[in-house]
Amino acid sequence: MGKFDEGGPQGIALAFEPKEKDAMQRNLEHLKTPLLTRRMKTIIFGFGIITDFFIVALFLWFFKKAFRFRKSERLFSPLCR
Question: Does residue 4 lie in a domain region?
């Protein structure tokens, strides 16, 4: 499993990336050039917020369900003894 974590998904992603024939001949980009555009940052932030809301909602749903189970367990525990 260690080998998969160390580079498996990245290798799979790069396997389907088309070749760039002029990659070595291109000039270097300026150091101040941002890696992510404003649109990319917005998309990443939006997916992060949506995922966070989903995770919190899932937690609250499980928490409510577990609390309901514990409450019913407490009510019926004298009958089970």
Answer: no
